[in-house]
Amino acid sequence: MKTSAKLVSVVAVALLAVAVAAVWILWPRKVLMVEYPMAVATDIPTTVAIGPKGEVWFTIDFGNAVGLVRGGKLQRLTKPGTNIEPIGLAVDASGAAWFTDAAALAIARITADGQYTPFKLGTPIARLARLAVAPDGAVWFAESTGYSFTRLKEGTLTRHTIESLRGGPYGVAVAEDGTVWGTLQSGNQLVRITAAGEMTEIELPTRSSSPTDVAVDLNGTVWVVEFRANKIARFADGKFTEYALPESKAAISGIAAAPDGSIWFGIVRGASLGRLRNGEMRFFALPRDDARPYSVAVDRQGNVWYADIRGYVGMLPAPAAR
Q: E strand or H helix at 26, and its extent?
């Protein structure tokens, strides 16, 4: 009888341990994030990018400034005019930020001490989307008004006009070898531009998927947000692989490749960040249910930064991100 009782007791303890472990794994937990609220209540942080020393730049919609987080403090660098949809942002090797300044009809450069330099586009209006800085220092951006992916280098603009009747240039990323990748949102295509300027348009596998943001990882693999399809597409060796998000996580915005190969993106209708690694997805809830992470960036330490259009710039610490 005593042996039987002990056996029942051991089994009961084992089952309890399994149950506790299951609850711990499945229970929805919010990871502690670090967040910086905007200094001006009306500021809308839009796009975020990382500098060479770990400084975090962000653009501000409907504000007359560009934001900077460094040393744990948020700064607001004023500039001429009010920003309108400044969704293109990248940082060069010197630490200066480049961003789309549609209201000024320009691509602008700003330094950490507030020196602002615009480079005029020479057009009467400007509709601009994402922007990237290439390894050679050239600035590439999606220019809807020019129907092109445009390069700005040493003050000279070179437009690579889209040949297809379908268009909507939106996302831009540059690989380490200088290859430029872009997306045609209404054209449902991925665009490749070689260092020699040769352009190829590649159809995405899902029709009317509305490709938006694009990123290139350290292996040269291209990752694309398929906005309307609610998928992330991987393009390597001439082939696409698609990863669908659950219906509860929708409106993907922003995509970035982490040093460990993970792919990160924002979930606007889901108040969370998404991670895709080895074909599997995981989601990290933001501190507020009304959060709207519009863009993401990952620093060298693996911290994941996001611009929340509800009025915050935040960071998921690397240990939690791993």
A: helix 2-26
Q: What are phi and psi of 241, to 5 degrees?
A: -130, 130
**Inter-residue contact 225 to 232 (CB < 8 Å):** yes
Count of residues in the chain: 322
Kindly state whether residues 46 and 110 are assigned to the same domain. Answer: yes
Q: Which residue, chain included where needed, has tokens 């979930």?
A: 267
Cβ partners under 8 Å of residue 175, min gap 6: 181, 216, 220
Rounded CA-CA distance 79/39 in Å is: 16
The structure's pTM equals: 0.89
State both tokens at 244. Answer: 């669908």
- Look at residues 296, 300, 247, 255 and name the one whose alpha carbon lies nearest to residue 33: 296
Q: What is the residue-averaged pLDDT of the chain?
A: 91
Phi, psi torsion values for 206, nearest 5 degrees: -95, 125
Domain at 297, CATH number:
2.130.10.10
- Name the strand (E) or helix (H) holding 4: helix 2-26
117 and 241 in one domain? yes
Q: How far apart are the first and last CA of the chain?
A: 49
Same-domain pairing of 170 and 238? yes
What pLDDT, on a 0 to 100 scale, did the predictor assign at position 31?
A: 60
